Structure formats: C-alpha cells, structure tokens
Amino acid sequence: MTNRFRTHSGGRIDRGAPVSFRFDGKTYSGFKGDTLASALIANGVHLVGRSFKYHRPRGFLSAGSDEPNALVNVARDAARMSPNLRATQVELYEGLKATSQNRWPSLGFDAGAANDFVSPFLPAGFYYKTFMWPAGAWKRFYEPKIRAMAGLGVAPTLPDPDRYTQNYAYCDVLVVGSGPAGLAAALAAAESGATVWLVDEQPELGGSLLAERTATIEGKPAQQWLSDTLATLAAKDNVTLLPRTTAFAYFPHNMIALAERVTEHLAAPGADLPRERLWQLRAREVVLATGALERPLVFPDNDRPGVLLADSARTYLNRYGAKPGDRAVIFTACDAGYRTALDLAAGGVAVVAVADLRREVHGELPARALAAGIDVRPATVVTGTTGRLRVSGARLAKIKGGPSVDPVGASETLACDTVLMSGGFTPSVHLFSQSRGKLVWDAASGAYLPGSSVERERSAGACRGITGLQRVLEDGYGQGEAAARASRDASSPARGATPPPGASSKSFPAQADDLGTDGFIGATPHARNPAFTKAFVDWQNDVTAKDITLATREGFRSIEHVKRYTTTGMATDQGKTSNMNTLGIVAEALGESVPKIGLTTFRPPFTPTTFGLFAGAARGDQFDPVRKTAIHDWAAEHGAAFEDVSLWKRAWYFPKALPDGRREDLHAAVARECKAVRSSVGMFDASTLGKIEVVGPDAAEFMNRMYTNAWAKLEPGRLRYGVMLREDGFVMDDGVVGRLSSDRFHVTTTTGGAPRVLAHMEDYLQTEWPELDVWLTSTTEQWAVIAVQGPKAREVLAPLIEGIDLAKEAFPHMSVREGTILGVPTRLFSVSFTGELGFEVNVPAHYGRAVWEAIFAAGQPFGITPYGTETMHVLRAEKGYIIVGQETDGTQVPDDVNLGWAVGKAKKDFVGKRSLARASMSAPDRKQLVGLRTTDPKVVLEEGAQIVADPKAPVPVPMLGFVTSSYYSAVLGHSIALAVIKGGRARIGTRLSVPMPDRVIEVEIVEPVFYDPKGERLNG
Amino acid sequence: MLIINCPWCGARPEIEFRYGGEAHVARPADPAAMSDQEWADFLYNRTNPKGLHAERWRHIHGCGRYFNAVRDTVSDFFVTTYKAGEPRPDIGESGQ
C-alpha cells in the first residue's frame, strides 16, 4: 500500500526521507517526521487495536498522549520490547516493528469479540457481582481466565539491556508545554536573563502551532514565527530546550520530574546514549502552559475505527499530510468542527455534513463553512454509526424541542469513512492539580480552571481557559515576565499568589480562528434502545454512558465511587478524554450541577512512565550499597557462604570440601565449627559490630546517663557489658564497652544498631545535655575485629602479642589492653560471646586481613577453625546470651531478658529509668526469657512459633509466648531454644505445647543457660 | 521533595534530613519526681496541630546537627528554622 491518504504537499514530514516499517507483520511506508499513527492513517489503516473488555475493533481517537485506543507493542528485539505505547507518540524510524495487542487470533478476527454479544451480561461492577462463588474459585479459576482474556500488552521476559540515567538540575523558570503560551513565556523569561527550561512531550516544540495552516503571528505565517522563535531561544545560553520530555509529576517545593526519551526515536541508538533520562528539576518558578485536550462526544457506536476527534484529524491533515478518510461527517458542539471541516475541504477531503449539537449556529467559522458550500445542520446529533472494522456511515437526527420520550426525530444515514467529533476543549490542569493548587469551576466556559496556587507556579494560555491565539501569546508572555521577576525575589514566600491576569509588556498581533469556549459535557441524546447501544465514555476501559447511569441507579453518588465501580478514568490514559463526560453524565442522572458532583484526583504520572526511568542505575550490584569487612575477601576465597546483616555481608558458615567433591551443608559445617570452638579454638570476623568512641571530660557522666549500668567506678583497662534503653524503658541496644582512660570509652553496638545508637546519643548530647563536654565519633569502619575463642585462644595469640601480659591474673576476663600484634597497634579485649575463654583483637581496618591471616597461621597447630554467624548464634544461645532484635522486639525491659543485674539501681537517673518504675514494668506475668527443651531431642522448634498451655483449648487459644531462638546443639546432642513466656521464670520445670500445622510439640521450660551454667570456662 | 533550610548549612533537599518529632519537649530535670501520668504525657502525648508545628529535624547527611523548624502541617511548607536551644519564634498558631 502506498500512502493513498497522503496529501500532495504540506505538513512537517520530510517527503524526501521515506521510512519503511512493519505493523502486524505487514510492511508499510511513511516519512521521517511521521508518528506510527500518522503513517498508518496515510496508508488508510485505522483498525489498530481491540478494546479491553468487549474486544471491539478500535482505531485512533486522538493524535497525542491522550490516546486511549491505539496501544501497540514496539520491539527492537526480545529484550527491548515495550508494550502499551501510544501509536500517536511513537516516532517512525526505518525498520520499526509494531504489533497490535489484546486480540486473538488476529486484529480482523478476534475470538474475544464474543464478549461484545454477551455484553448485556457484563454490566458495570460485573466482576464484583459475578465471581463471588465458590469462595476459592477467584484465585484458581476466575482471575487467571479473566487475566488471559483481558489485559493489554505483554511484558518482556528478558532483562532490559538498556541504560537509564538520572540527573538533578536547577533553573529559574521552568515552562511546561511549548505551544504559543509556553513559547511566549519562555521568550519573556529568557529576555530577562533568567535561566529557562522549556520542555514538551512531543518530538517537535510548537504545540498547536505545528498544525496551523492559515494563522499569522506578528505578520508571519505561524510556522515561520515558530521556527524564528525557536531559533531565538536556541541561541540563548540561558535557555534549555527539551523536546520528547514529559513533565510527569509535580512534587513539593517546585520539584518537577521530567522523563526525557533520548533514543526511542532512533533506528540505531548509539551505545553511548541512555535510553531515557530522568530529570529531577528544581525550578524557582514554574509556568504551566499545558494547553487543552479536545473532548469526544458520547454517542452510540462512537468507537468504530474511523471515528476521531476533529482537531486530531486536523493535526493529521495539516501536520503530517495524512487524510483521515475520503468522506467525513463532522459532529460538533463547538466551532472546532468547522475549523476542521474547512481544512479538510481545502485538503481534498469531502465533508458530507457538519452536525452541530447547538440549536443556533452563528459566528465566523460556521459562516465560512456555509460559504464554502458545506452542509451545516444545527440542532443535529449523530445517533449511531454503521460499519464493522471501519465506519461506513453515520446516522443523523434532529433534536426535538421540549420534553419528549424520543428526544430526537427520525434518523438519516449518511455514507462516510470517517466521523470527526468535537465536544469542546478541557483545560489540561493535571500538573496544576498535582501541585495541590485549587481548581475552580468556571460556569461560563464549563470547565475547571486553576484557582489559588500552593507552589510558586502560574498557568498560562489554554490550560487556564484563555482562547484566541493573540490572547494566548500575550498571556504567555505576561506570565513569563512575572515568573522571571518572582524568581529574582528570593524572599518571596514559597507559596505563590493567584496568578495575576497576563499583563504583557509586549503585544503579539495575530490572526487566527478563535474557537471560544463552547462545548458539551455528558452523553448526547438518542432514541435507540439502551439495551443494544453502546455510547463510549472511556474507550480504554470500555465504559459506556449506560454503565455510569447504572452505577448511579445502584446508589453510587460520589464521583470517586462511581469511578472505582465502573473503572471509568482508571485506564492507562487516566481519563484524559473521559473524565469530564463522566461528570456530565453523573450530574444529569442525579439532577445536580457538574461542580456539585466533585472531581476525581489528578495523580502522577501524567502519562505512563517506564520502570527503567525510576530504577536508573539502581539495578543488580548497584541496587543497594554493600558493606564488606577487611576480612571479607579471605572468607570468600575460603568458600564462606554469606548472609546479609543490614547492609553488611557476613560470613555465615565455612563449608568444607568433602571427600566426594561436594561441600558440607549448613548443619554439618555449623556442628564442626561449634565443636572446634568448644574443644580447641575458632576465629570469627566481628568487624561489623558498631563502634563509637566516646571521649571528653564528661564521658563517664554521659555514659552513666545513656546506659543502665554504672560507669563511674569502672576502672580504665576494664570492660563492661552495657545495656541501652529507650526513654520508654525498653531495651534498645547492647554491647561491650571498654574504658581506655578516665575520659575515653570504646563503645560497641549491635551490627544493625550502630547508626541508631549514635543518633540516639547525639540527640541527648545536642538537645538535652549540651553542657556535657563529650565528643562522639563513629569508628565502626576504622577497626577490624577478630574474635579468637576457645580453650586454646591464649596459646594461639600469646606469641603474636607484644606489650600485653596475657596471663590470667594480669589480663582477667572483661579487660582491655593496648599493645601491638605483629607490630600492629591493637586494642585487645578479653571477652567472650561463646562462653569459652576468648579475646577480641581490634586492629586498624587496613591491617585486618594481614592480622587475620597471621592468627590463622599461628592457630594451625591447634586446628584453628574459622566460623561464621550461624555458629556464633548457636554458641551464644547455648549460653543464653541474648541478641537484641531476636530475643527482644522493643517491648522488653532488662529484667524480661534476665538483664536486671545490669541496671544500676543506685543511679539517680538514666535514659529509661523512670519508665522502669511503672508498676506494669515489673508485673509477674510479663513475658520472661527462658530456655526450652523438646521432649524429642531431635526436634528443632521453629523460631516465632507460639507457645500455649493447652492446644485443645477453645479458639482463640491463649498465647503464652513464642520461640525467639532455636538451634540444634551438636555439642550438647539435643535441640535448644530460647523463648519469651508469660511468667516464664515461675514455669521452669513445667511443660507447655508448641502447636504446629501438622502436630503439637511438647516442650519443657528450663533455665536459659544450657552450657557451663557456672561460667567456669570463661576464665579458661 | 521539600527544601529545608538548615540553620548551619543553608537550604538543602529533604533527603539529607531526618525528622525528629515535636520540638520544645524538654526532658524533665527530675523524672523520679513525676507521677506516672505526667511521665506518660512527656513520653507519648504530642500536640499534633493542624497548622504551625514546631518540630525537630536533624541534618543527618550534612552537619549532623539537630535544629528546630516551624512547619505548616496543612501546606507542608516551612515557615522558619532555628538552632536548637533558641526559643520558638513568635509567629502565632495558625498557618493560614
């Protein structure tokens, strides 16, 4: 097929640059500058999709981002496959491959169209009413079937190979929309010296001027003025012009999100370019020049391919040289229909008739249409169309005066191949509303217009209801000047004032048709049987006028409820073409005025936005920061399995190679590691522990106030286990603290709690006790920590250490000494989280691996065994040592987890002390930490499992507590568990039950220390 | 995303800050002298106004300082920010 519907000349396409493309497997030709939609229309193709619910044949409705029907899949390859693109925005490039969606087996014959014939049984709320029984069937049967039948495009299954970038930017004035108002605003702001960004979603800047045929501005043809103005703007250093860029979201304090499509339009995108760019632009002032969207008319069969919006048809004709058909019937409620009629007639399309909903037709455009010999019919409606895959005729009928059963007279069918409709224009207030500005109903123009602003923004031109090219230009210029002025005033409040009238210092004499503000909102009258007619309001979600009136009959009053019940306005076009007509239909059905019905909320994004844009570089390894210790690579080289603990990668266990070539599993490795520590010596990378250096003359006083323990009498060189509470008395963190000198503490925290603890300390130090002379420094990353644990620990370390006497008497348990290990300065702790004799070697992080390797080598005669976090957990649970966040969940006071001994009762005050004094904090039925033994020693309980007294008790069974930690202890030869149980300490020696889905496990309550209860091994 | 004016560093985007709850809720000098009800009020009860709210923010990814701000909870705009320890500016209760 060869562009039979292409005009002989004109338009902005490059007729010297033909482009070949494929749609549904068939090859077509178009020109550079075409969209997929304009090229298909030039080839006479209107059938491009099937509707969502009824699978009705659909064609193009519009020429822009408001398009609800023409959704296509564009694929460069299996991974670069984008579903649901609007063909009206897809720029043609050589070799483009597009396919239609939601049809099977083909667009011309779609089996799903059977839904259209059973549609009397598919009313609004159909899903809610029908698929309710049997209860389980929704998930198993209905939903999969419905999903297969409905739905739009298919997502690609391969990872997206393209790159997306994210940038921040700043400007004085952002202008959104490059039609006449936006261009004039950008010009005014740029001339004042402000930095200006002008963005537009279309590939070319110019907006409505791109489709102007006869208008003139400042004595020049509009298109000449456009190219001169763009050249002027482009030449200015302070102006950034961004076509193909959608301002899709308006965030507080004038942060606008822009989606720039960088390579989508290129036949061979360069590897150096990202596919899309996200701009997070902060503008001092924003000018919204977003124009207006043409409204469809809601009449029966208004969805047949070939039925288009009138001004969109004019755009196809004037901008792309693509005729919508040979014979057009126009149905209009405003002068836009006449402007299109005149342009069509001039372009060689026969205008069969103009049906005008208005009773009286006067004004310049209708007069010119009459003078051109066009059949103008006032007080006339279209009551239906004929044709199947393409419209073949339109039924016209006169509107009767006065109330009558049949609102219209006898109909006459006129043969045609396109029906063009215009219900007037809806100001595009999406971004204004997103900025939380207040919309006001303007009865004169029948539109919601921007009222008072919240942000520093102002609207200009058609998006605030201004019509007529000259007025729009001057309003744009005036708003641009005002925005530039306001941007220079740093003291002006964040909140903008209501935009003043566009007082422009410059005039823009222009000659153009003024379409005024006439229009229609709602469904047009007809006398056909409602059971067999479909007048579409929302094309994409297949919502008809009948569905909306049904919803009101069923009692829905709020527009938000009508919207959700009928799904009108909830498709990917977010109701750009349907929302106002929905309001009109609801208003009429309820006998209310449109503003009484309310308005649904405008939410971002303005048009669908790719996941790639939001993800940017945050994919794969870049998704989240990863923290690795100095010893990480050694562990990886030695086959460690890792687990994530906050952002850290921690060695989980070190599986050994088995003789048969496999590796140990978790349980075998942990059993071996545990036995090694208990019988000889193991080593563990504890570097992830949080570390805070607390320094200053008042350091001890500060520690006294922050921790439950008493610090004043702790001598330098000693360690103490510290417990930190929140002000509400609940355990927040714990850790071993070393006092290095009278004014210096080495504080350790839990791995995940370090930032929280530092912030907590800073909060009190800065805001409650600024008089304390204390400095807090995070030293987590500065120290590598190597725990050497087991009866042979001293023997392994002693030969490596200089300057510290490791003898038991000189260096007792819970001490800290400074010296060197292999010449590296160290803070050596005698501390144990295993219950064995133990040391923690703190060395500067960069020496971490070298010292680790040296200890590993020195330990070889003793079979030193590196162990991971899982073994660490088992060993500490055998000793009943808690882990904050595992045994605690933010509702445990120290006594609940057997830490009452750590609370300095004699201290006058510390954070959380007053809360501990509340009676309920020492109630005997609080959940208390105990140990559990299963009757069957092999059974390992599930962590989190609930504990009850009588599993056969009537539901709800009283829950006494739950399992917090549970492991199999290879050293003890039976399972062990820790739990918090109501009044648990008094229950020691009794039996309770842990009900599981398949059985009930009997447990005995025991002391929470399973191994070496007297603690004799600590002093080795 | 809000712009917040740190009294030490100047205007910075919201992602550099962390919210810190209502301002000017001083920790009592002698908690032990308080009744349970008084202590509960200090711990949990906040004004939660519709309009101007004095609140704490911390420039956590900047200078690390806590400071105070007056923000309109209706519009989400900041009226002013000031250093910790300074009194709340006298700018009324309502944001309108």
Automatic annotation (TrEMBL), chain A:
Disordered: annotated segments: 480-524
Gene3D superfamilies assigned: 2Fe-2S iron-sulphur cluster binding domain, sarcosine oxidase, alpha subunit, N-terminal domain, BFD-like [2Fe-2S]-binding domain, FAD/NAD(P)-binding domain, Probable tRNA modification gtpase trme, domain 1
Enzyme class: oxidoreductase
Start and end residues of each FAD/NAD(P)-binding domain: 172-434
Alphabetical list of InterPro entries matching this protein: 2Fe-2S-bd_N, BFD-like_2Fe2S-bd_dom_sf, FAD/NAD-bd_sf, FAD/NAD-binding_dom, GcvT/YgfZ/DmdA, GcvT/YgfZ_C, GcvT_C, GCVT_N
Alphabetic keyword roster: Oxidoreductase
A GO MF label: sarcosine oxidase activity
Protein name as it appears in the record: Sarcosine oxidase subunit alpha
Upper taxonomic lineage: Bacteria, Pseudomonadati, Pseudomonadota, Alphaproteobacteria, Hyphomicrobiales
UniProtKB/TrEMBL annotation, chain B:
Keyword Electron transport found: no
UniProt EC number: 1.5.3.1
GO molecular function: sarcosine oxidase activity
GO BP field: tetrahydrofolate metabolic process
Top EC class, one word: oxidoreductase
Entry keyword set: Oxidoreductase
Top-level division of the source organism's lineage: Bacteria
Cited Gene3D superfamilies: Folate-binding superfamily
Protein name: Sarcosine oxidase subunit delta
Source species of the chain: Ancylobacter tetraedralis
Lineage of origin: Bacteria, Pseudomonadati, Pseudomonadota, Alphaproteobacteria, Hyphomicrobiales
